[in-house]
Design brief:
By secondary structure, the protein is an alpha+beta fold. It contains 16 helices and 13 strands. A 6-stranded mixed β-sheet has the order 1-2-8-3-7-6, with helices on both faces. It has a 5-stranded mixed β-sheet with strand order 9-13-10-12-11, with helices on both faces. A two-stranded antiparallel ribbon has the order 4-5. Strand 4 and strand 5 form a beta hairpin.
Length: 433
Amino acid sequence: MTFLRPLAALLFLALPAQAEVPIKEVTSPGGITAWLVESHDIPFTALDIRFKGGTSLDAEGKRGATNLMTALLEEGAGDMDASAFATARDDLAAEFRFSSNSDAVAVSARFLTENRDQAADLLHLALTEPRFDDNAIQRVRAQVLSGIRSAAQDPDAIAGDTFNAEAFGPHPYGSDDSGTLDSVAALTRDDLVAAQDGALARDRIYVAAAGDISEADLGALLDRILGDLPATGAPQPGPAEWRATGGTTVVDFPTPQAVVRFGQPGIDVHDPDFMAAFVANEVLGGGRFTARLMDELRTQRGLTYGASAYLASLDHADMIVGQFASDNDKVAEAVDVTKQVWEGIAQDGITQEELDAAKTYLTGSYPLRFDGNGPIAGILVGMQMQGFPIDYPTTRNARIEALTLDEVNRVAKTLYDPSALRFVVVGQPQGLE
């Protein structure tokens, strides 16, 4: 269900300390650009493709169309029904994954070098000639509807959907990209074809590859898979206005532990102060037990098993968002403590000791996030979508190390706004209005 993805996190799933790993920019004969990390140790290639736009491109009244369309891309294509397509893919020992989120339709492929051309042809067929057979539509639609019904009983999903609706209102970010029971039930095959035409176009493609493939072979592969897609797709939805005010929304729901989602407006990933904001947020809401939210809520008071906050840089909005769960009789105290943590960093910033520890963790953990061709391709395509330069991996750690305490605290005091902090509490909290 809809939890707006933490795009900013992708930035830091970047290349390891050995950033000399060569990233090449490849342009196909047909003009499609990709980033490539070439490695011939193992005879397979990981290919990641993103189509910018994602479920935010759903036409008015057709919420859920892009999600359902994406789920049907491997349910038959060309002259192959779903079973025949799956058999052809398995015979090649290839892997295809299709997914969507608010900002992109994602295609991840893995294939052996010896089967590269056949796998590329099969993937091309899925992207250009999906069948959308009626029996496949009904089967996948039933799965989506089941997920929507389940989410309606899931406090985590309710908290996310309520928070997003309050933050972004009628913008696509403000509603579940799976759609509603009514909107999904009403989708027709024509709606799915329209969603395909709107999302899968050449004017919004980002590609990265890692593995056993040369620049020339990748160029040819790009045209083979993507070259005859439509030139343009549906228009992007435009900026999402932040509508939430400071305060608390309680959604009554019978659960022993209330789920709390909270957030405020954030900072653009291309803002010169973004890296300082990222480090400040690591001190406040990072996953380490020494991060302030984790320490105050879990370690010092035993109010929750875990709490975190992150910078979410979406294509059309930026926010700081976090979440925790707490017993209904403790959640009011946990909310108050979270407000105090927010006020503390806004008023006093962080300490030199905290800055040093954050730098050590962020730079030292860099290599651990980079463990194979698949993750590399995913990281590189995410960097492209966020507009980062190809040499970003060689400068990332140095940029963190260069940050001063005064710089981080200046940004923290500007960014964190306790008066703007919105809480959504799903449960039956005691003593919380």
